Protein 1
Amino acid sequence: MRLDLKDSRIFSAVRLMSSFRFAGNGLKLAFLEPNMRIHFAAGTIVSAAGLIFSLTRLEWCIIIGLIAGTMALEIVNTAIEKAVDLVTKEYKPLAGMAKDLAAGAVLLYACAAVIIGLIIFIPKL
């Protein structure tokens, strides 16, 4: 009996490598989006500030988590936008709501990240 590589119960190095290749391609696609480049630039600036102000290990963990979380949420937002665009090219209120909700989630998380960043960095000034 031939085993199907798409069967989720089967582990193989080929499937694992394919998964990493697909994920890497997803990251490349994400960096084509202007908002992702903005998040990356902000993360780079915050990381540089972290080096200048000698953050503690815990502070670095928090900052890295915030940067990665914001970028991951932006990728999910982009995926939702692309999926909605695939389904319909015409304006539909529910499609617009789905896109707005996903963008709102990114905005909420980014605002919380800024507040937490200020809590970490302001005492160091």
Protein 2
Amino acid sequence: MIKKEEVKVEVEDGRVLQISDERNREQEDKNDKWHRVEMSSDKFIRRFRLPENAKIDQVRAAMENRVLTMSLPKEEEKKPEVKAIEISG
């Protein structure tokens, strides 16, 4: 099970959102005749290129019930101004 403390959310190179998780586990069994140690490692990385109008400093992440929710506000796109022109003649 992934814990929110194990998940990293970072913005790198200005416009790349990286979500990663790395877990190392160790399981040990022993008795009078033997001793066994099993180690495993899991790694997860996903990268997404963010749009040009993303507000990088306002990226937010929340994790609840193993669901990661991202909030990425964007600046409003400036719409071209339409100006009426009189037609003479």
Protein 3
Amino acid sequence: MRQPDIEIYLKDADHNDISNWLTTAIGPCSGWQQKGQTFKCKAGDVAVTWLPKAVGKWHSLYLESADTPWEDDLACAQAAFAALNVEVRCAPGTWVEEESVEQADRWMRISADGVEEITWRTQ
């Protein structure tokens, strides 16, 4: 089932690298508009939010649409790793508010080692 939005976390990437990748994957990126620590743009018709160092050294990329080339966070994370060659993390499925703390700490790690489930305590 297609997720209504996509959120992944990238290590060692910047929003200019992200622009180049999203332009290829989705469509031309508008210029980034900075509001505080957050950067926003549009890739094609998809609203994009980039939050540097959202969790420690990890940067958040949030695509506010179901209309992306990817079915879910994991597919997007794998594409990001392939394009950018940086470690990427994402939730194993759609996140829901009622999740237990243990469930919330389950993440997928995409790296040169492949795809694996990890425990990542983000709080």
